Amino acid sequence: MAFDVKTNSLAEYWMPFTDNKGFKENPRLITQASGVYMTDHKGGKVIDGSSGLFCSPAGHCHPKIIEAVHDAMQMTTYVSPFGSSHPLSFALAEKLARLLPEDFNHVFFVNSGSEAIDTALKMVMAYHSAMGNDRTRFVSRERAYHGVNIGGVSLSGLVNNRKSFPAVMPNIVMMRHTWNADELMVRGQPQTGVELAEDLQRAVDTFGGQTIAACFVEPVAGSTGILAPPVGYLERLRQICDENGILLVFDEVITGFGRIGGKFAADAFGVTPDIMTMAKALTNGSIPMGAVATTDNIHDVISDKAAPGAIEFFHGYTYSGHPAACAAGLAALSIYEDDDMYGRAATMSPYFLDSVYQLRDHPMVKDIRGIGMAAGVELKSNGKPGQRGGQAQVDLFWNGMHVKFTGDCGILSPMFISEKSHIDEMMEKLKKTLDGLT
Ligand SMILES: Cc1ncc(COP(=O)(O)O)c(C=O)c1O
């Protein structure tokens, strides 16, 4: 699609999480994409090193997804999800439930990861209300990112995401993050740090376990720059939750659908939560959609409490289970299965990680943390946090590669369709860009 940045105004669109002024002085628009490549508005070829925003393991513009969405739109462009629905929503929920850990037989559709987090918070509250529990405290973690709605900001452990928004939910207790400055360049799960899970026990000891409703964690903290859990850490959180009737929620918005091994982090680490949130790769990023899945037990406690004929869960969105999103989700999950995307991710991971860790001695690199098909490459700060990362992101783009940066950390998460030659191309462009940084 032609777009002339000289004649079209860039002023009106207020871009999210963007230095709008800087961007509009030096715009970088994507006008087309296919597979692992995108095309910018000047006609340049850009390789996608972050699957967009961890969204598209099967590549951009997958024809089967386009066709499925097109077909669904011929059937119906909208159905009210309150008290009615359409066949694709049931089909997707069933397909998803078959992928999830045993007992996760109930799926609630939303439109984003942030909505998934708010929905999970309300599911936890509804469960404890139905149980007659008086639990109003939530536990989260420093450096956590759980989206941008008020629930997610309340759980957020990233200062910039909180500091302009003081009126968030009360009664949130923070565990420490798991990054260890004395143990850099860790590949996979750190061997040390399991004791950090005792922060949850300390919350129990301080406030009383019976006051804590749930503990929310990203099994691998993603947006902060890929922090894999120390060996034994998630197991210990699970144990403390079990001992105290606390629900464990895994935010799998990034880790879901094979990103760090297994189909979900719950499989990869062998720890099963009570509630899982997901989004992004659910539709290969093609149509906005998120989901919250839970067990028979939690679902039944909430449902059984409602009077016959009454709504069980007073929650939902106008676009929950939209037909276009369901069609995209069904097509994406079929592609992941039919083209063995989970297997491809597992096979490519060692090559990808070997390649990324070759940057370990680069003078600009402070730390690298990688697991599965995700790696955080943290640059040395120039004293102004985020400035060097922001520059790297722009330079990298003009060198022909897209990477998502959080502050000074570039977060690589290649598509699962990437070949070794694509990984080589990414590393070449990344190195060239880092060489040019000051
Ligand atoms: C772990 C996690 N949770 C929630 C979200 C929010 O998702 P969304 O941007 O779709 O609202 C994100 C987004 O990156 C995420 O990484």
TrEMBL record:
SUPFAM superfamilies: PLP-dependent transferases (SSF53383). The keyword Transferase applies. Keywords: Aminotransferase, Pyridoxal phosphate, Transferase. The keyword Cytoplasm does not apply. Pfam families: Aminotran_3 (PF00202). GO terms for molecular function: pyridoxal phosphate binding; transaminase activity. One of its GO terms (cellular component) is cytosol. It comes from the Bacteria. Its cofactor is pyridoxal 5'-phosphate. Belongs to the class-III pyridoxal-phosphate-dependent aminotransferase family. This is Aminotransferase class III-fold pyridoxal phosphate-dependent enzyme.
